[in-house]
Amino acid sequence: MRKTTASLAIAALLVLGTTASLAQAPGYQGPSNAPAPQPTAPHYSGPSSVQLMTVKQLLDTGRDDQHARLQGRIVSHDGGDRYTFADDSGRITVEIDNKDFPPGQTISAEQKVELLGELDKDLRKVELEVDRITLIP
């Protein structure tokens, strides 16, 4: 009996030791209080039939719900999900959800980007609701 109790104790220590070392290993998948990481949705990166425009062209001729592509810089954060985007022709307010920023990349005010989105135009405001941001090297 004594040998059996000792064997069980050793087996229990081995299991606990193995479990503890597994819990500390990278890629832990057990319970957590940390927020779950958001999966990054793959997106198409080839040619687009959405016309590349300047801010001025979009403001002058754009229609509500029109899809548009702009190239320029995000020059300021205006609070919440509102930013100011600028190119050589002018500025426009853009709405960018956190999930629409490229994962793992920081965008500075000097970084050139391409925005793909939909124009939201009514009597009180005109802004581009961004669906995708692509960094331009």
Please give a structural write-up.
This protein is an alpha/beta fold and 137 residues long. The chain is built from two helices and six strands. The longest helix has 22 residues. 12% of the residues are buried.
Describe the SSE topology.
Blueprint: H1 2-23, E1 52-53, H2 55-61, E2 67-79, E3 82-87, E4 90-95, E5 112-121, E6 126-135
Main traits of this protein?
137 residues, signal, 21% helix, single chain, five-stranded mixed barrel, 34% strand, 2 helices, OB fold (Dihydrolipoamide Acetyltransferase, E2P), CarO-like, globular, alpha/beta, 6 strands, BOBF_sf
- Per CATH, the class of the domain at 52-135 reads Mainly Beta
- CATH fold-type name of the domain at 52-135: OB fold (Dihydrolipoamide Acetyltransferase, E2P)
Structural class: alpha/beta
Shape: globular
Low-confidence segments, ≥5 residues, pLDDT <50? 13-32
What would a concise description of this structure say?
With 137 residues, this protein is α/β, with parallel strands linked by helices. Helix content is 21%, strand content 34%.
